[in-house]
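Project channel, design review

CF: Before we commit to the Chryseobacterium ureilyticum constructs, I'd like one complete example in the thread so the newer folks can see what an input/output pair looks like. Taking histidine kinase.
RD: sounds good, go ahead.
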Amino acid sequence: MILIVDDNQSNLYSLQKLLESKDFQVETAGSGEEALGKALKKDYALIILDVQMPDMDGFEVAETLADYSKTKDVPIIFLSAVNTDKKFITQGYASGAKDYVTKPVDPEILLLKVKTFYNLQEQNIAMKKTQQNLELEVKGRRESQVTMKSQIDHFHLMLESLPQIAFTLNENGIVDFVNGKWYQYSDTEQSFPKTHPDDHDIREELERCRKKGKALELEIRIKNTVSGNYRYHLLRITPVYDENRIKNWVGTFTDIDDQKKVEKEKDEFLSIASHELKTPLTSIKAYVQLLERKLKLDKESPEGGFVTKVQGQIEKLNTLITDLLDVSKIENGKLKINRKSVNLESVISNAIETILQTHDEQIRIERHGTKPDILIPLDEIRIEQVLINFLTNAIKYSPENNQVIVTTFVDEEAQEVRVNVTDFGIGIPDFKQDAVFKKFYRVEESSLQFQGMGIGLFICAEIIKQHHGNVGVSSIVGEGSTFYFTLPLN
Ligand code: ADP
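CF: and here is what came back for histidine kinase:
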């Protein structure tokens, strides 16, 4: 918007028309006072100011405008008479104006100057706006930095109040915060606590997880800086993501030493108890066999039936004790696998045969898929144990259905064979499926209805792990379960 100031109405009119014809927006003022009033209220890109005006002349108006911060930078073009003394013109410049045009006005020259000033002022305004925006952004950033700092302080305070050792790592895996408890196990903020020589190295494990972008969970012994004793801790380091990028990591060491000791004592007790039980049981078994032979009882007679029942119960007890012994072997790393080249299909048929012979009820076991009539390096007794466990469970946890399907797949490409045991029984809830392979885990909903100790699948998982295969389950509650294991062909 341009403001034209002239006391002569016809001059005002002709200048206004001239500028409007070039698409400029124009306002007019008939006196210096009116011009001042308007300039203080509105933003003008340019003021065209007649020098000779009664009351307040153009120079006075320009000087007054120069005194106000709002108007001091608005460019001014003076319109002056040809014979205006040079000293008046310099006076015009001194009071902050930028140029002058002599009367009578040459429209072309005036338009040229107006355009130049107008553009300059527009650019000035745009620059000012940019500057203001920049200032606003800087202010916003400063504010969010302050908020972030207070959030971080709050977070650190929370970590400080945890009963665990807590720390954070930056995106490069460098420790950048530790709580007070850290110093019970490390002398400096940067170095991780010293781990037991037989345990994993924290840095190495962390680097592996950092490469995969995955959380780290590890049970390790770390050395107390004061007592020099190692205590078992559960180390957890979790990545914190910010829009798909790891921003930093938060870690804790939880002291599980007491829990570990209790677990060890329990394992030792189980190991001793099962060993002690095994010896008298073996004698009982032998004596019952002797008795059976000596008495030559008719199997159909009540006495013969009793002996068979006793033998059945001894067998159950024997399986229980053998399983407990297996658990303690696993704990001590002594579960040994004796691999030989064996035809897997014959192992499967043997297991099915054993199950059919030892179950009185009518059981239907179907065989599906490509039969693995191939030699695979495996421990025959242990793999049969896994199959018998899967089949026994399939029957046990299907009280309303007696059908079981054993399906096998040979995957030449992946160089592995897969064995599925499918039942149509009670099924397992989704979120409990992984846990069934854990030691002593039993699904709560069914644990009262079915007898068991929750160690069969734990042993199976360990046997398959030692064969470098995988175990797993897929299941739908009320519809049934498929337990599977895979074995590498070589
Ligand atoms: P156990 O059968 O002695 O309890 P396992 O280790 O063999 O121990 O099985 C662990 C748990 O997994 C069982 O207690 C049961 O809750 C669940 N489970 C195992 N097999 C099946 C199955 N075929 N169908 C439903 N639940 C099963």
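RD: helpful, thanks. The radius of gyration is 46 Å.
CF: The domain at 162-255 is CATH 3.30.450.20 (Beta-Lactamase).
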